[in-house]
Amino acid sequence: MIFDLIKELEMLLSDIAFSGINNIDYNTIEKIETLSNQFEKISMTNIKRLLTEFIDSIKKYKTDENNKKENIKEVSNNISKIEFYIRNALSYE
Question: Would you say 75 and 61 are in contact if contact means Cβ atoms under 8 Å apart?
């Protein structure tokens, strides 16, 4: 189950990477939130925290017009953190 959730998250991040951060819609955010809640149910608090930070950074990027450059860096950094987590988690498969 854990690896299924991680693979699902990996596919979602891949979709985001190919479509671009500007094209993230609220449906995608809802999918991330659903995954985040599923990780929380199985006590994977680190990935839950990373996903919450990612969601918050996306929302900030979408709504704060004043600091677009800084906000896109934050979104990108959060993607990198999640990817690092995934790589380490999948190495134990």
Answer: yes
